[in-house]
Amino acid sequence: MARLALKEKILEEEKLTAYREQFSAIKEQTSRLYEQISKLNEKYQELEVKKLSLLTRAHAAKAIKQSHSALSNFDTASAVRGFAKVEGYVQKLEAEAAASTHFYQFSTGTKSAAIQTDLLDAIDKELAKLKEAK
Hints:
The chain is mainly α. About 95% of the residues lie in helices and about 0% in strands. The protein is rod-shaped.
């Protein structure tokens, strides 16, 4: 019986040694896996930063491209012509306003006939110039 107990003790000690070796190996593998996970996590963070950087650069490039496209489509000659038209129209309105003021004053008799005739001639000349400009 003592032999049987010693035999079991020796077998159990061998199992214990095997289990300790397995535990040590598993602990070492687990440690390596944690290191790999940590490295992968760091790499993932780097890639996320790079992704954001690339997205920012892409948006900036797209904005620059759109602004260049808008500037190249802008026709300065037509804008100048448009402003010239508006300016001519404003001058015409101003001349008409001046004419109506003079006609009003003429009809009320506040100015002499000679001054009125000179003024009407000047207005007619201005209107002729405006018509020629168009």
